[in-house]
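Onboarding guide, step 5: your first structure request.
Type a short instruction followed by the sequence, for example:

Predict the 3D structure of this protein.
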Amino acid sequence: MFHWTGDLGPLHSFRRPDWRPFSMSPELDRGHGTTILVVEDEDVLRATIGRLLQAEGYTVLEAQNGAAALEVLSGPSAAGVALVLTDLRMPVMDGRQFAAALARVRPNLPVVFMSGFTAQLMDMRLVSPHLAFLAKPFNNDALLAAVRGQLNRSA
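The system replies with structure tokens like these:
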């Protein structure tokens, strides 16, 4: 959204013709109802990621930490989860602990790790170079590319 306060008088707002509210990547496939579990302790970020994924056609389940995510994955909607998008630093059960527990119950479930702490991501890469990582802050296209990349890898 652009705002103009020039000689035209009061504030005028307009949208560029190429403006899109979410994804700037029309060439990438949409989610088509694929279910993603978003595990993030920051409520606003979790909700924002959820809205973006829903706008792209994904079904979204949410959890505030790893322990809550394990509860979701033991519930009735667990079988439909195709990917987990999880923060690494969370209270109660962090992303590493959650990933270890997840590997015991759903070893083939793809995971994308998010973190604003680059050192954590580097430590995780040393453990397993094929893990998918998303460094915070990230933009919509980076998030969607990471999600689609992991889903395509596991297909």
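Each response can be followed by summary notes, for example: Confidence is low (pLDDT under 50) at residues 1-28.
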